[in-house]
Write a structure and sequence with these properties.
heterodimer; A: 170 residues; alpha/beta; Rossmann fold; 7-stranded parallel beta sheet; 6 helices; B: 781 residues; Substrate Binding Domain Of Dnak, Chain:A, Domain 2; 4 domains; 6-stranded parallel beta sheet; 41% helix; binds iron/sulfur cluster
Amino acid sequence: MNERVIPWQPTVIAGPKQALLVTPETAKMMMKKAKRPLLVIGPLAKEEPLLTHSIEIAEKWDLPVVTTADTFKIFSERNVETKSYGTVEILNLLKDPEWKGVRGEGQHDLVIFIGGIYYMASQGLSTLKHFAPHLKTLTLCKYFHSNADASFPNMNDEEWSKYLEKMKLN
Amino acid sequence: MAPKPKELKADFWKTKDFKISIGDIVSEEGIESTDESSVVMGPTQKPNVTDLRSWDMKLLERYPPFYSPFCDMCCLCTYGKCDLLNKRGACGIDAETQQARTILLACCIGSAAHSGHARHLVEYLIDKKGEDFPIDLGMDIDIEAPIMRTLIGKKPKVLGDLKEALDYLEEQMVHLLSACHTGQEGNSKDFESKALHAGLMDNLGKEVGDIAQIVALDLPKGDPEAPLVELGVGTIDREKPVILCIGHNVAPGAGIMDYLEDQDLEDDLEVCGICCAAIDITRYNHNAKIVGPISKQLKFIRSGVADVIVVDEQCIRTDVLEEAKKNNAAVIATTDKMCLGLPDKTNEDADKIVSELINKQIDGALILDPDKVGEVATKVAMRTSGERSKVQVLPDMDEVVELAKKCTECEWCDRVCPNSLPMMDAVVSTAEGDISKMEELYNNDVCYSCGRCEQECPRDIPIISMMAKIGETDLENQKYNVRAGRGPVQDVEVRRVGAPIVLGDIPGVIAFVGCTNYPDGGEEVAKMAEEFLERNYIVVTTGCGAMTLGEYRDEEGNTLYERYSGSFDAKGLVNMGSCVSNAHIPGVAIKIANIFAKKPLEGNFEEIADYILNRVGACGVAWGAYSQKAAAIATGVNRWGIPVVVGPQASKYRRLFLGRTDKEDSWRINDLRKHTEIAGEPAPEHLLYAAETIGEATVMTAKLCIRPNDTSKGRQLKLNHYIDLHKKYFGTLPNDIYKFVRVEKDIPITYKRDVMQILEENNWEPRELPQEPSLMDMKGD
Ligand code: SF4
Ligand code: SF4
Ligand code: SF4
């Protein structure tokens, strides 16, 4: 079990605070509780199976979606509406408590990440951990992200796929 | 307060032989300032740490620092460790300020590395050529040291004059480094201002270093037709004795080349290099060869091709001695920066050192005399090469497969890889006899051979040696070339392109710089350069970046250097040289301000930087930045008003400078012509931006070339490229395009209808075009 909660890149350990390990059930609870959640999808989701998984999760929970890097293209080809921002641009907005969010309804209170490059996502999560106390972060990647508030554990593809399938159920 | 612009005659820079009568210049015997008899010194000659603070605060207001802590803790003093997550340390510092402090520290380290290098060069070259050796860059370069002129306020005429700049920056560096001490600065923006100063000192140190070596060693002086030199592991003739130079200081390599020439041995040995030492040795002597960038280092050392490894300073593997021992190569350390615990043999008789090295009485030698290095390295290589060639250093292919079979698929190699590369898959496939995945990692330096995977492997599988062996199966194809570093841009070139750049007719100057710590190998960077060259941008490059651009061939087998001219002009690919030659990048922007716009340089940093920020569409790309030097370089050019796009790894530098387009007030500018403040535009939108993919980086780079000063014609061109590239990588027109359209005439004809639609959706109204956009003399200044 311990293996599963050592950050995927072990040297990412930043200090005493570590993410809470979550199952799909807890992750869904967090999403249900959130008033203004946001899904941020990174470039690893340009490929299958993550592309379909992330589209279906977004649809299931009616999440506003931000795509980072050039991930926007494939989503728009799939007729999925997303807002395109650079990773660092969206993080910069998320850390500002005054920002009105992608729907203009107010700053988000839960940001769910999937498909970011591990080390860059880890740095971004650190930004939010330190400078965005107004929101919580949750990662649905295959890797344990210790800088998030809540993260899936390190998993193999098969187990991860099961986790993501569960995210599409109530 | 801005300095008053002064009237300049057209022949300002042509006036020769004058006397100066300002400040401390008169008291400096033998040093004249500039070629002007009555130069009015601007407000900031030899600026101290706080003298440019007001400019920094303007930049930081518009581009506030964005922090990504790499670590929650601080362990710099014995009050600590302190956990700074949402709390302060025992000294009172908070996380944001601590990040800025770490950035300052990184910039100080990087800046000191360049300036220490410059100090070495200047002292060595003065020793060789004399204090009075003239600084003459030829007929076409009058403004030979634009950074020094701006900061020191003087034109260096002889080598000895360069010492004044070094004395100045060394003093500044002491103050900057001291600010990192516990209980000094307590504000993140002030730390950033100091980091910007450290970056500026970096730029100055590099300029001093490169000018010294160009003039004293007769390197190319801005020659657009500098020769093509050989590059690539496959270009090294393994039958000959091989001397490998690693690092950045040209002196030992030059010593070797001189010795070979004196002894008429040039055809008998191979001298090659890795990193900037390679670039500079080939600027000195085109017979030397470039193995490649830093990412080749461990692979190439492991291959055992080098009989002697000469190391100087910066970016050298600190385990080079252990690695060399594995294959019986001799190591010679040559500077005070890296002594490796070796005995100092500087004053020993050369033949005695040779015999001690050959007989393994010593592990290696520290020789602080470049000429002696030349003799010892040559003799050792010649005498050991024959015997060494019989030693098998890499496992043979059968062994490679057997070693791969030891893999238990624990996945730790992947997990510790800084780049999350699929090394385990490559090892597993190799065990099955399929080397293609390992080749994919080897090619283009997708794996930059840092060796962390191998260190971690619980089965002690020599992953890098295996990869080096697999790479050797295809040596024939690893032959490329690069145009020898030409040094600065000529004044005549600036006269030719100054107007098109400032008005926007040449859509931008893009600088590919930095290390090969790429997320997905070098080819995508070369293709990005090709993309901009095809679009009429000027592409400049230095260091490992310059090598990366040379390692890519098109379908006809030509490298970018064979396809594009070396002129500083539209579609020109300009290799300026090594890391220290990076100084010529802000240098050319400064020259544009001076030659084209007649802005005085001396003591006039702020006006020049303001000009560059608002009018010179230049952007740096450091896709693989890794070191503290890269942090200092980027921070320095940022202070001059040049934005930089970095790769995803650079998020680990902890700090970016990001603008906010939704904060309209932050983009206000002063139109100096009309003396009125007007609404501006987010141009350039960011000052230091980390992109996640090359597509994102390409589009952002095009966008960051937009400047408030563009004419409508120029703006059309720039927006056309921005839209084209956005369509290519994102599939649509950029939805922020309306922010960059000031009047209808700015809209590219081909996209008129689509753009108009976006304008309507955003209730766009035409805006005034500024005539002299500036951040100076704003309300509240
Ligand atoms: S320098 Fe400050 S934050 Fe760092 S360990 Fe010392 S007291 Fe703690
Ligand atoms: S050598 Fe470094 S970059 Fe290459 S696979 Fe190993 S850990 Fe990754
Ligand atoms: S660390 Fe070694 S044993 Fe583990 S997967 Fe990688 S190569 Fe195999």
